[in-house]
Each structure stands twice: as C-alpha cells, then as structure tokens.
Amino acid sequence: LNAFSDAFAYGGQSRVLTDGCYLIRHDDAYPLWPAAAAEIEMWRLDCGRINVPDLNAFSDAFAYGGQSRVLTDGCYLIRHDDAYPLW
Fold it and tell me: Can you give the residue ranges of every domain in the chain?
C-alpha cells in the first residue's frame, strides 16, 4: 500500500513499483491521434424466403387473422478491412 500511494505522489508520472507493477499516466494509455478508418463495404444478399401461414404471430392484438405472407430473408456481407462477416 505504501509503494502504491507513493506512486501517486509524483503527479501521476510513470513509476515502477518494487513488485514489478507499472503505473502509467492516464494520457499515456491513449494514442495522440485516432486510428485510421477501416475500409468498410456492405452488400445485401437474398438468402431466401420465409412462408408465414398465420400473421397473427406478429400482432399482440391479433389484427392479422386469416392472413398469410411470404417474407424476404435478407443477409448482409460486410467487408471490414480483411474480414468478411455475414450477418
């Protein structure tokens, strides 16, 4: 505890404690400028159709009784630098 409190007595400057722990000033932990923006692109893909025979499942007031629909199932391919997640 004494070595820990002594580290803060120096105005937050970096100091090595006797047990090998490092304390770093708050502004040393962050870069001076923001990182370069990542290259991002996105494509929408048609990933199929969803047949909904009873639309009442989409209404808490049961407003769609007797109705059915075919819904689209869209997927998104995202290029983020060298990664390509599919969402």
Answer: 1-35, 36-87
Q: Mean pLDDT across the stretch 40-46?
A: 95
Token reading at 65:
């009784």
Say what the pLDDT of residue 32 is.
Answer: 72
Q: What is the DSSP string of 9-62?
A: TTTT--EE-TTS-EE--GGGGS-SSPPPPPPEEEEEEEEEEEEES-GGGG-TT-
Nearby residues of 64 by Cβ (< 8 Å), 6 or more positions away: 54, 55, 56, 58
Is 80:43 a contact under the CB 8 Å cutoff? Answer: no
The model scores a pTM over 0.90 = no
Q: Any idea which residue has 């404690």 for tokens?
A: 17
